[in-house]
Amino acid sequence: MEGEKEIRYAVVTGGNKGIGYGICKKLATRGVKVVLTARDEKRGLEALENLKQEIGVSDFLVFHQLDVTDPTSIASLTHFITTTFGKLDILVNNAAITGSKISDPDAFVKKINGADIKWDKIMFQTYEMAQECV
């Protein structure tokens, strides 16, 4: 219909806390239908309820469990999006999969506040880790 705004759909991975939670909040308050995802279903549902109470807009928020490292979980989310919305407009990949490991946590904490950071001395990455991240 003329004058009606088309609904946009978003998935936020790792949406149950921190930056992901904030992104879910911002998108939902702007009229985007948001699928908040989390590995842990209980934490995800708690975050969803907290968010709904905070912003008072429940029509724009739904939860779906997602472990971005599990192909079955990814397929389940894909099926949900396809059958429920028919499309996806926005993907915010915020899940805590970094593609690297900290080899020296103490040095990492000390260096993060310093100007001269030699990342290769405190972190490492393999091809497989980068591939998993992507």
TrEMBL record:
The keyword Oxidoreductase applies. Signal peptide: none annotated. It comes from Acacia crassicarpa. This is Uncharacterized protein. GO terms for cellular component: membrane. Belongs to the short-chain dehydrogenases/reductases (SDR) family. Keywords: NADP, Oxidoreductase. The lineage of its organism: Eukaryota, Viridiplantae, Streptophyta, Embryophyta, Tracheophyta. One of its GO terms (molecular function) is oxidoreductase activity.
